Amino acid sequence: MAKRTPLYHCHLALGAKLVDFGGWDMPLHYGSQLKEHHQVRNAAGMFDVSHMTIVDFPDPDATRALLRYLLANDVARLYPGKALYTCMLNDTGGVIDDLIVYDQGDSGYRLVLNAATRDKDLTWIAPQAERFNAAWHERDDLAMLAVQGPEALAKLEAILDAKTWQTVCASRRFHAVESGGEFIARTGYTGEDGVEIMLSAQDAPTLWDRLLDAGVAPCGLGARDTLRLEAGMSLYGNDMDETTTPLVSGLGWTVAWQPPDRDFIGRAALEQQRAAGAPQAFIGLVLEERGVLRSHQTVHAGNQEIGVTTSGAFSPTLNRGIALARVTTGVGEQCQVNVRGKRLSARVVKPPFISRPS
Amino acid sequence: MSSTIPSELHYTETHEWVRSQEDGIMTVGITDHAQHLLGDLVFVELPEVGRVVATAEGCAVVESVKAASDIYSPVDGVIVEVNELLADNPELINEDPYEEGWILRIKTSDGLEGLLDAAAYELIAIDEDEDEEGSLTNAKLAG
Lengths: 358, 143
What we know:
By secondary structure, chain A is an alpha+beta fold. Chain A has helices spanning 8-13, 33-42, 60-70, 118-131, 152-156, 162-170, 204-213, 221-230, 267-276, and strands at 17-21, 24-29, 45-48, 53-57, 83-89, 95-103, 109-113, 137-138, 142-148, 176-179, 182-185, 194-200, 217-218, 280-287, 298-301, 304-315, 320-328, 334-339, 342-349.
C-alpha cells in the first residue's frame, strides 16, 4: 500500500483526487488544478509536501566538511538561518538529486531531498557521511506544508504567534526561522513569496485546518508542477538526472567553482565539460500557436532535430504552452516543436516564464 | 466519482456522447465522466468543417492539464459545424459537457445502431471509476 502523509485524512475530507507519487498517496488536485494555480499566483495556497525527505545532521563541523565534498554548491556560503539550493552529483557530474540545505547553526544542517529519490539518496549519502564522521538521521517524524502566494505571509499572521510572524516577515528569501517546534523557511517551489513549514506530524492537521480557516486554498501536486514550471524551476527526473550535468540543465549557477581547491564529487567531470564547452543549452520555449507542450517532444530548427523538451505544460498564467528543453548550442530565437506529429512554432526564452517580485 | 449520463443520449466506448437530430445531424461531445478523468481542459483542436470522417477516426483533440486525448467520430459522415467557442473557452467542456461544451456536428446517413445507450455506457464508466487511481498515475509530478 502506498504511504500516507499525516495530512492524508485532510485530503480525503476535502475530496482530493489522490494519485500515487513516488510510493505516496498524494493529492493531484481538489477539484480544479487551474483554479488552484491561479489561487497561488493571486492570493495564497497550501501544499502538503510531507512526502519529501528531511535529513538532519546534528554535528556542524563534521557536516560542513562532508557537505562541502558531497554537494556542488558550497555550504561555506551559509550562515545560521540561511538556505542553499544545490545539486548532489555523481563522479561523472550527473545529478543524483537536487536539494535544499539549511544551516541550523549549532544544531547542524538540515537537508530536504526529493521523495522519489529517497532510497538512492540515502544509499549515496551514508558511506560519505561515515567517512566524515558526520552523524545523520531521517526526520520522518516531521510533516511539511508549503504556504505560497502573494498573500501567504498575511494569512500566516492569524496562525503564528506575533513575534514569530514578525520574524518570518522580516527574514529574507531563502532564510529560515525556528520557533517552538516549527521550522519556517522562506522557500518554495512556485516562484511566489511564502514559506515552507516543517513541524511534527501530529501537529500538522491542526495547522492545515487553521490555514484553511484563514482562507488558504488547498492545492495539489498538479498545480505545484505548473507553478514551478512557470517559475523556471527544475524538476528532478524530468529536467535533469544522473545522465545530465548541471551545466546542460540550466543549473550552472548552482555550482560553486570558488574556491578552486574545494574538492567536491563530480568537480573533475564538470571542469572538463566546462573547458570543452557544454554541448547543450537549456532553454525555455513559449508556443506561439494554440496548443500545449509536454515533456519528451522533439525540438527542431529548420530540418535539424536539435533537442527535446524535458518539461512541458499549459501555462495558466500566460495562457500558452510552455516548456523547458535541452537543445544543441547555438539555437536562435525561434524553433519548432513536434506536437503530436505537427511542427508548431515556439519562441526561445530564458526562464523564468513569468516575472515575480523577489 | 459519480458523473451524469443523460438517458436520451447515445455513447461510444471511447467516451463520446451523441445527440441525434431528425435531419441526419449528430452532435458530438465528451461525457461528464471523461471530463472528470481528464481534469481541467486547456485546449481543443477542432477539425475543418467539410472534412469527411469515418467511424472511429480521430477528428478532434482535447487537451487537459494532464494529457491530450483524441475525439473519435462515432459514425461515418461529414463535419458540418464545430463549436468555435471552445477555442477560447475549453473549460466549457468541464462546466457543461452535454450542452455548451459540445464539440462538433456531423451529417450522416448512419443510424444509432452501433452506439451504446446510457445504461450500457454507465457500465463502462463504473468499471473505469474503480480503476481510476491506476489509470492516472502516469502524470509525473513535482515533488
